[in-house]
Please model this.
Amino acid sequence: FDVEVAFPVDASGTLVAMQVTLLQKGSACPLSVNINAYKGMAELSAALEAGMTPIVSYWSSNDMLWMDGKGQDGQGPCAVDQASKCGETVKFWGFAVEALEAEGSTEAKAEPVPVTTTTMAITAPPMPV
Model:
């Protein structure tokens, strides 16, 4: 899966939403969520402005068919979950941290911020299911 996460801000730099999109190679049907009515948006906006470190988590579960199962159209890749088939390691790559223009801004999209590690391997036993 490809995961896209965005934190769009308004012209004053205040967070207006949290957006997550999951994309699966070969699928023309992304799964997206836009959270724009979170009651702690002002606090989250201040925390993001202060700076954060991205954290990536990897886990397995026997009940993930909602994401990668056959689906209502029967076209998904998996008929059953096989959490035991999840690898002991996983690689994350292609990280890009970029400043995006504020909504309503005429400024062009900023150049990507250099990321010191664009590939990493995480080794951990799968979580119990």
About this structure: The CA atoms of residues 36 and 69 lie 28 Å apart. Residues 2-123 form one domain.
